[in-house]
Write a structure and sequence with these properties.
heterodimer; A: alpha/beta; Quinone Oxidoreductase, Chain A, domain 1; seven-stranded mixed sheet; six-stranded parallel sheet; 13 helices; B: alpha+beta; Alpha-D-Glucose-1,6-Bisphosphate, Chain A, domain 4; 8 strands; 25% strand; globular; disordered N terminus
């Protein structure tokens, strides 16, 4: 089959590789009909996520048709149309039973790496480095899906792929980011990063009752896109405005009730702290560049919540613990507990409350993936969300 | 194409070679130096901050590149606290005449003590999650025959008998007279109020020196504690999820038949 393989920093290739096989009894093999490139794939592309190996198959946003099931899978059959969540979860351990699927105890076959770096290991993820289990990803013609009786969600054959594809990651991720804000009537939510997760966090914040959402970025097209797709959205381009002042201005001096960091470890910025972050990352004194997160902590109102869907992997320097402590903040973060949110969000799509396909900017063939990675990495104004079709 | 080595690669692969006290001192001093450097400003300040960052990282990771280069290890309590070579020796090489391994590990499993006890009590199940075992055959009500994998395709064998057992709570066993590697084991299953069952294992392996001593080392690797931990982790996965998830045998661009696809 054809698969998009990571070949090194800034290098992906479409390779002809062996078809996947059932390896565990709870596996299924999916013939992929749609797959997407995620902003977090760019962290891999740019070499920020450790423990990648040359030849690893990328991709964690995919859907398709069941073609084979292991003998312990009884809820799926050949021909079922499914969307696959990017977190792999067993459904049986303490964490799965408490709906904390992304920290499943039994889905990472290589837990030692995370135990060394993080103390304990989270769940396995598709196509996202050997720290996350080393699972082959879904930017391919076929994929092997472990714990297929727990992860993939069945969708009606009649529903358009593009409407449900993003249930695989970015819609639930944006939704959990907003859900973590515990939104109350009258709340204003500020969101750093107007990429696809930021766009879904914006929609989700409104779905959960936010009065106003303020989106912060420096890609003007993305800000305009947020504005065009939502009422009551304000935007701040941080190249033109001082974010803290502007946020106070837009909230009558109170500051936003919650702040969402939908940027993660590759934050952009030109302030002193972000320049120092570049320098330290270059000499290995810090691994993550958390400018957006620092700013979110600084800007959120007293007693507010900082919610982090943006991915972090290593160490951050100059964490503003003084601001966090003295303002009495709540922090919520983590990989998305996919299996918790997918049924609810599928229902929202079926009820017509949201059509997630609005974020798509490019529809390409799988063979065009190398070009798409390159463009997506460089031109974020135009390249908002890429969907790939294997056939 | 050469793969880039990233910071967490380094962190993941590095061993701790700095003692706990020294790590705290490193961390605090590093932090102070960073703060001082920033306050000073300018080039000197920046350099001090960078130096402080290095110390802080050494404190956080417990790994010192300088110590590494000098082959010094202040983290290993079994080694003299001075700058001597040889810190990377295995725990077995300290004694030329005998070797003894004592390992204690625990894991919490989301199953009842009875489920876990029943599975373990049939020793023939043990090789399913203890990777160094090739097979265990039950030979009597309390006796069994164990075969473990050894280097170069050879095996080590011994007979064992159950020395104590309390249903759903505890099983103790030991190898019988004449075993190449004398060993004992105890496993306990303790229920918790809401978190499943705490499984605690204590294993000892002992052999009377010479070649056999090094055989123990080869059999259990340099990190017997890690090995037993891995076994318990697999036991947990098997009991909770019904399988031990693997990525062995999956597809990748590293397969010999993989090639660049034509566009």
């Amino acid at each position: 089959m054809k698969a998009v393989c990571w070949m090194g920093k800034h290098s992906v290739q479409v390779m002809e590789v062996p078809d996947p096989k059932i390896l565990n009894e709870r596996d299924a093999i999916i013939k992929i009909t749609r797959t997407a490139i995620c902003g977090s794939d760019l962290h891999l592309y740019n070499g920020y996520i450790p423990s990648m190996m040359q030849g690893d198959i990328l991709g964690h946003e995919f859907m398709g048709e069941v073609v084979e099931t292991g003998k312990a899978v009884t809820n799926l059959k050949q021909g079922d149309k499914v969307v696959v969540p990017f977190t792999i979860a067993c459904g049986n351990c303490f964490f799965c039973q408490h709906e904390l699927y992304s920290v499943c105890d039994n889905s990472n076959p290589k837990p030692e790496g995370q135990e060394t770096v993080y103390g304990f290991a989270g769940s396995g993820l598709f196509g996202f480095s050997h720290l996350m289990g080393g699972f082959a990803g879904g930017q391919a013609e076929y994929a092997r899906v472990p714990f297929a009786d727990v992860g993939p969600i069945k969708v009606p054959n009649s529903i358009d792929d593009e409407k449900v594809l993003f249930l695989s990651d970015i819609f639930p991720t944006g939704f959990m980011a907003a859900d973590n804000c515990n939104i109350q009537p009258g709340d204003t939510v500020a969101i750093w990063g107007a990429g696809p997760v930021g766009q879904f966090a914006t929609k989700s914040a409104f779905m959960l009752g936010a009065e106003k959402v303020i989106v912060i970025d420096h890609y003007q097209d993305r800000l305009d896109f947020a504005k065009a797709n939502n009422e009551n959205v304000e935007t701040i381009n941080f190249d033109d405005a001082e974010v803290h002042d502007k946020l106070k201005d837009l909230t009558g001096g109170r500051g936003p009730d919650s702040c969402i960091d939908a940027v993660g470890l590759e934050s952009h910025g030109t302030s002193v702290d972000s320049l120092l972050d570049y320098a330290k990352a270059a000499v290995f004194l810090a691994t993550d560049r958390p400018h957006a997160l620092r700013q979110a902590i600084f800007c959120v109102r007293k007693g507010g919540t900082v919610s982090i869907p943006g991915a972090y992997g290593g160490f951050m320097d100059k964490f503003p613990i003084g601001a966090a402590f003295n303002k009495g903040l709540t922090f919520k973060m983590g990989q998305t507990h996919m299996q918790l949110y997918m049924p609810r969000l599928l229902a929202a799509v079926q009820e017509g409350r949201i059509d997630p396909s609005f974020v798509i900017s490019h529809r390409l063939n799988l063979s065009e993936a190398p070009m798409a990675y390159d463009k997506f990495n460089v031109d974020k104004n135009i390249w908002r969300k890429v969907v790939l079709t294997p056939q | 194409m050469k793969q880039e080595k990233s910071i967490t690669d380094i962190l993941t692969n590095m061993n701790t070679n700095v003692s706990p006290t020294e790590r705290v001192v490193s961390g605090v001093a590093g932090g102070a130096l960073i703060a001082y450097g920033i306050k000073q400003g300018g080039t000197v300040g920046a350099l001090l901050s960078v130096l402080g960052g290095g110390l802080a990282l050494r404190g956080a990771t417990g790994h010192c590149q300088v110590y590494d280069a000098m082959d010094v290890n202040t983290a290993d309590a079994t080694q003299p606290r001075r700058l001597t070579a040889g810190s990377k020796k295995s725990p077995f090489s300290n004694s030329a005449t005998s070797s003894k391994i004592h390992v204690k590990k625990s894991v919490t499993i989301n199953k009842s003590p009875a489920d876990l006890y029943q599975f373990w009590r049939n020793f023939e199940n043990l090789p399913k999650f203890m990777t160094h075992l090739e097979a265990v055959t039950v030979t009597g009500e309390k006796t069994s025959f164990w075969k473990a994998k050894a280097p170069m395709g050879t095996t080590v064998e011994w007979n064992a008998e159950i020395t104590s057992e309390q249903e759903n709570e505890r099983i103790g066993w030991k190898s019988t007279e004449g075993a190449d590697i004398a060993n004992t084991g105890v496993v306990e299953f303790r229920p918790t109020s809401t978190r499943g069952t705490e499984v605690r294992v204590v294993l000892t392996y002992e052999s009377p020196g010479g070649k056999l001593g090094s055989l123990v080392a080869k059999l259990f690797g340099e990190e017997p504690s890690q090995q037993v931990y891995g076994d318990l982790y697999r036991f947990k996965s098997m009991m909770e999820s019904g399988e031990i998830i693997t990525v062995e045998g999956q597809s990748s661009g590293r397969e010999p038949q993989a090639k660049k696809a034509s566009a």
